[in-house]
Amino acid sequence: DPENKRHRLYAAVQDKVSGVCAYCAKAFGVYEQAQALNIPLLDEYEKHPSLRNRVSNGYQVITF
Fold this sequence. Notes:
Number of domains: 1
Helix content: 25-40%
Distance between the termini: 28 Å
Number of helices: 4
């Protein structure tokens, strides 16, 4: 939604986004919106993205 205050932030990183957590998308009520935008819903581990898969593909996990 271009009117959303976070739209500019998403637009700036859109090409870097590999998908969204399927569980979180449902919990926050945006599951259907993600599907409509063809954003992959990541659900490899109990409806969440698999950190193990990401790390094995060369990604690094950063926590704050």
